[in-house]
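[job 4471] stage=fold_predict status=RUNNING
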Amino acid sequence: MNKKIAFFDSGIGGLTVLHKAMQQLPQEQFLYYADTLHVPYGTKSADEVRGHIFDCVEAIVRENVKAIVIACNTATSLAVKDLRAMYDIPVIGMEPAVKPAVEMNRESGKRVLVFATALTLSQNKYNELVSRVDDHHSVDSIPLPELVERCEQLDFDPEKSAAYFRRKLADLDLNAYGTVVLGCTHYPFYTPILRTVLPDHVQIIDGSTGTVNRLKHLLGLTEQTGMRPREQVTFLSSSGRMEDQENMRRALEYLDTNYM
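[job 4471] inference complete, writing structure tokens
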């Protein structure tokens, strides 16, 4: 039997990364594990979150998977180095797509705006990333902690969400920016809504493409063709609640309908 590829996140955010993997690898089987007992991570202490991550990944490894994607920028910042040392299967992490965003705007002189959780933005890993690639000091960042909780509640109301973004961005000159980086895997759920708020010239990117490309490389996989099987994903959560699994299914269906 073909082993599954596991995706892990604090909640449903990592489904945005899984969704891209499913599009490119329809012949693979996946396991998605959400730490629904402890979501959101971005408002907790680093030590507390690290403990939750280690517990969840240990549960995932017991499922005999062939790789684990840490589909969470915060979890990657806090634990991916240790996880790679602990397990002998590929552990793929994520980071905000700051480097490609900076390169996209190098000639235009436009700035880059990063949305992420407060915990991600506070970590050395993020600050070192920005220092390494932002040679023109063109990167700004703001935390959007409430957006994770809205997403976990499957609250994708267009009017309320657009109003939320307008409040958060009210003090910024959006015409100065060329790219917005979604530095939390929950945030791409709101891409269609965010496009209605940002000026037309502003591009929106996230780290899922690079992460899936890295996954394919490490497993020696090429992009596949064919239809996705009906039961391509097994859903698990730290709570074990059936309603959590149903929420994950509904969120994945939302992505099928709304997320490019």
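[job 4471] summary: The two ends are 31 Å apart (CA to CA).
[job 4471] exit 0
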